[in-house]
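tool=predict chain=A
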Amino acid sequence: MAKYAAAVDQGTTSTRFMVFDREGKVVALEQEEHEQIYPRPGWVEHDPMEIWQRTQEVIQGALGKGNIDPRDIAGVGVTNQRETTVVWDRRTGRPVYNAIVWQDTRTDVICNELARDGGQDRFRPKVGLPLATYFSGPKIKWILDNVSGVRAAAERGDALFGNIDTWVIWWLTGGPDGGVHVTDVSNASRTMLMNLQTLDWDDEILGIMGVPRAMLPEIRPSSQVYGTAGGDLDGVPVAGDLGDQQAALFGQTCFDVGEAKNTYGTGCFMLLNTGTTPVQSRHGLLTTLAYKIGQEKAVYALEGSIAITGALVQWLRDNLGLIERSAQVEDLARTVEDNGGIYFVPAFSGLFAPYWKSDARGVIVGLTRYVNRGHVARAALEATAYQTREVLDAMNKDSGVELSSLRVDGGMVHNELLMQFQADILGVPVIRPTVAETTSLGAAYAAGLATGLWSNLGDLRANWAKDKEWEPKMAPEERERLYRGWLKAVTRTFDWVED
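tool=predict ok
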């Protein structure tokens, strides 16, 4: 009898494979980074074939490390960097172009053209999203318009589109030799092409964007058997699919209306469960699908998406050389008592929630001769907490629910300085679970539910446990003074790009 569930977690900077037992504890893990490609300012790409190669390597590595027989795995789920767009040849499996990453801003012109008729919220009533470079639909259009021969192939059904979940599942289940071309509702809701009510591709928007339906994957529930894996996972059902942030919500067992989580990764993403009815945001948030379990009703969420958080620490490491390893940023930030009067607004790809300004660019404000490396490191960490506060404020306004605590996960939650400052600037407790990598856990849960390793959501909730809690210590007047400074700094990023 199977005793494990597994997950391929394909993220923006790395791919990992994790195996969990029935209690939700990690049994085996392997992780590898992949190349970040920057052809021009504002352009961000990945090599899809490298991603598939890394996927195979981490599966093999984790199974070997844990001495795990694939026959003991009930099912494997996939979770992924959302919105990152791949178009490939159905017959050969070769991409027609590099994957265009969610951070990429090249579709700004396309989005502005689409917004001329109906504004930035032209499609929001149907899809819950503003017109922004973030989402997949305009990226597909860019590839169709700019790569020779692809549009004709797409209309024939020979060129296939997928977010990274679709790409990985297609290869896991055979690739050119019978690979299953599917996505789930959570990933489909990030394309700007799926109708929130029908949970199907919207023909009107497809026509406006010029995207042939023949190239799109079939939209399925998040927890369902899609096919069977080959290779090192030969015979294991592929049975879960969730965008990374929805997977983290699921892994945090935020199954009740009003429960929320924040994931600290390359970007930062807060999701609030709003139940089986979509809630349209009036304050710059996204209406998105949270998950759909088999034949049960779909569950929706409000989301606040922040483009640059952990990526800012990588930038300090790779572009400035302030640190050698990302983990060293906390020690550097602790060499000073505060931010020295500076704020660092990392609008490298424009501003996401709640502003949605693609013409913004990053700034450091308040610089004096007093400021040193430590202050820059501290301001970089504080930027994550301030951006989270902005999203939480918007969420409170949209939902009418004041959050009493925030569940957190992702790589940055091991940074004690950041977590304490996060609690201070929010004024609510911040809670880290025992398994901080809840993105992988959520995908494994979805697969295990579909294959009978777990019977229901109650089984999953019983696995959740608190590892650490940070209580706010900052005086309310100091909290608001610092936050006012941040809001002032953000305005300095606006309207930087003129063309």
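The chain has a mean pLDDT of 93. The longest helix spans residues 373-399.
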